[in-house]
Design goal:
By secondary structure, this protein is of the alpha/beta class. Helix content is 27%, strand content 32%. It folds into 3 domains: 117 residues, Periplasmic binding protein-like II (D-Maltodextrin-Binding Protein, domain 2, 3-Layer(aba) Sandwich); 88 residues, Periplasmic binding protein-like II (D-Maltodextrin-Binding Protein, domain 2, 3-Layer(aba) Sandwich); 67 residues, Alpha-Beta Plaits (2-Layer Sandwich), CATH 3.30.70. Strand 7, helix 4 and strand 8 form a beta-alpha-beta unit. The two termini are 30 Å apart. The structure holds adenosine-5'-triphosphate and magnesium ion.
């Protein structure tokens, strides 16, 4: 009997947790997560889930304490551990930006020459400054970076931004975006064949969830004279399903369309005489 279990490290509590858990649930992986447990086992998939601080995940995955981890690319690149990036997951998007007080006379990146910058991301910031030939003093702090200029600690900050609201309320303006981040799945570089096989099974589910999110199931009534034209607009996975309606001369046409083409296709099929158009979400899509 194969008893191999993969260990996945995810953020215990924070901006990544909800979406990460949602992804696992959409993959049909069932488990109980409560705020006090540090570890849980899925009921219906060979996976153990470790709840950790995101800062610790790259190290644990590199050392093999966990086989996989889900966290922001910003932490992955900052920690710079020897792990493989298996898939970018597209949620928790944010940017790492340099911001200065509103009254700072900022003209270009060279305005930062000789200044002090507070950040929790010294590695990414250092790389950016070096690439741009700016020498500034990096002051590493763990959190609440945005108050550093107000309390006179530094001249500028480099921190994560999503809407910019926190910067605004601290009297700061964003002057340089130095890095764009999203969540990603990382893995240990020396997976056993058994663990690799479980990953393959899991990846099939992840891909199905992502494909489904980008596609819609669409149904419409079409006069028989327009079936050819409508079918060309709705190629679907193979070809559309055409079912005769009870009313003579009409059929129901079913297909799958990409979210991005959605409105354009609706306009075109309406021009061909389609009516009663229904659009439904898809839960999983396996090609
Ligand atoms: P932990 O306790 O796990 O160390 P944390 O305080 O480092 O948590 P969070 O603030 O929960 O981390 O953010 C986790 C990740 O979410 C970030 O590393 C980043 O990838 C992403 N993120 C998305 N939007 C933002 C944002 N506006 N501010 C900070 N991080 C964001
Ligand atoms: Mg953290």
């Amino acid at each position: 009997m194969n008893k191999t279990v993969i260990k996945l490290a995810i953020q215990k509590k924070g901006r990544l947790s909800e979406k990460t858990i949602e992804l696992l649930k959409n993959c049909g992986i069932k488990f109980i997560s409560n705020s006090s447990s540090l570890k849980t086992k899925a009921f219906n998939f060979p996976m153990e889930i470790l709840f950790l601080r995101d800062d610790d995940i790259p190290g644990y995955v590199a050392d093999g304490v966990a086989d996989f981890g889900i966290l922001g690319m910003n932490e992955i690149d900052e920690k710079n551990k020897n792990v493989s990036i298996i898939k970018k997951l597209g949620f928790s998007k944010c940017r790492l930006s340099i911001a200065v007080p509103n009254d700072f006379n900022y003209t270009s990146i060279h305005s930062l020459e000789g200044k002090k910058i507070a950040t929790s991301y010294p590695v990414i910031l250092k790389k950016f400054l070096t690439e741009n030939n700016v020498s500034a003093e990096i002051h590493e702090i763990g959190g609440s970076v945005e108050i550093a200029p107000t309390i006179g600690l530094t001249d500028a900050i480099c921190d994560l931004v999503s809407t910019g609201g926190t910067l605004l309320s601290n009297g700061l303006k964003e002057v340089e975006v130095i890095y764009k981040s999203e969540s990603a799945l990382i893995g240990n570089k020396n997976l056993s064949p058994e663990k690799q096989a479980i990953l393959d099974k899991w990846m099939l589910r992840i891909e199905a969830v992502y494909k489904a999110q980008n596609n819609k199931y669409i149904l419409m009534n079409v006069p028989n004279s327009s079936i050819e034209a409508v079918s060309k607009l709705l190629p679907g996975m193979k070809s559309p399903t055409v079912i005769p309606l009870r009313e003579e001369g009409w059929s129901s046409v079913h297909s799958v369309i990409n979210q991005d083409d959605f409105w354009e296709i609706i306009e075109k099929v309406k021009r061909e005489g389609a009516e009663g158009i229904l659009v439904c979400p898809i839960e999983q899509m396996i090609l």
